[in-house]
What we know:
Layout: E1 28-36, E2 49-57, E3 68-77, E4 81-82, H1 84-90, E5 92-93, E6 97-101, H2 105-122, E7 136-140, H3 155-164, E8 182-183, E9 186-187, E10 189-199, E11 202-213, H4 227-230, E12 252-259, H5 265-273, H6 275-281, E13 291-298, H7 328-348, E14 352-353, E15 359-360, H8 365-374
Parallel strand pairs: 6-7, 12-13
Antiparallel strand pairs: 1-2, 2-6, 3-5, 3-13, 4-7, 8-9, 10-11, 11-12, 14-15
Helix pairs in contact: 2-3, 6-7
Amino acid sequence: MRARELGIELGLGTPGPLNAFTDVAGVAVGCVTLVEGDAGPLVVGEGPVRTGVTAIVPHEGEIAVEPLFAGCHTLNGCGDFTGLEWIRESGLLTSPIALTNTYSLGVVRDALCRREVDARAALGQDQTGCYFSFPAVAETWDGGLNDIAGQHVRAEHLFEALAAARGGPVPEGGVGGGTGMTCHDFKGGTGTASRVVEVEGERFVLGALVQANHSWRDVFVVNGAPVGLEIGPDVVPGVDLPECPSAAGSGSIVVILATDAPLLPHQLQAVAQRAGFGIAMLGGYGDRYSGDLFLAFSTANRGMASQHEGSGAPLTSVAEWIGHPYLDGFFQAAAESTAEAILNALLQAETMRGRDGVTAHALDGELLVQVLDRYGRRTYRPR
């Protein structure tokens, strides 16, 4: 069950209709989940396989020719997110977004380049590569459960995820790029949530999608209750990671934020920064080996600017944006939806056994509720 279904409320805001990233109209998400082989000894190239890819389509048109305003933020840099330098430079998101594991980042990035070549050909545009493509692809490390060195994610899996992308409910838990991930020493993965932001009579939505593979149990809190200390390894065993230099302290989180509010790139950068407070709401603090990378985009002002010379873009354009005094609601929404998306990822994930018998145990919703009720913290405010 998701957090709200258990009566758990994080923060003061109101969720959107689905409490999901896709509450932002036009945004679609698709996943391909690869689970192959028994949880036996690791054989590189053969498995066990516990991985996948998540694809985010920001709008139904071709984003390479109708880019969106975007901003990004790095809380801690022990991770990789291709395309961020161009987003920082231009303030534009010019590709779909994909999330996968660390060793599959390159093949997914290359597949998105191929996707753009094919898309431009379908539009009757030049396909010789005289334009440039900087796809947005992020990773987290799933080597605790998955044969990560086997690089089992292939280009066709990215294309399948794109083809499967839909609005509506978003798959959560151990699915897509989040398949082999752990979080706060429980089974982690993909999670989502949203918030409605009302400003001067106008109603907007901000949604979060996370790939949560970060932090450790002792710091895990929910509404201030020390959940990680109360549900210790004696109650739910921890993840016994394999002996390798990169395992100890490893873990990352990617946060993607979408909104239908008209925000400019520097405002979206500020919104993206607030995802870090959502991580902190559950006790995470950006461990030194955690790649905590955030991207925010707006579906408003669609296609107003183009990165491509000779694209026919006008010399000047007029954009609409929300004034700086009205941004606080979006900052709060970014923090709260990120926190709730992480908790949903934990609650939706199922116990998984992977390479060498390593087991990531699920966070039991009933145990969580018992802890929160003991502290009177099932909601942010007492009732």
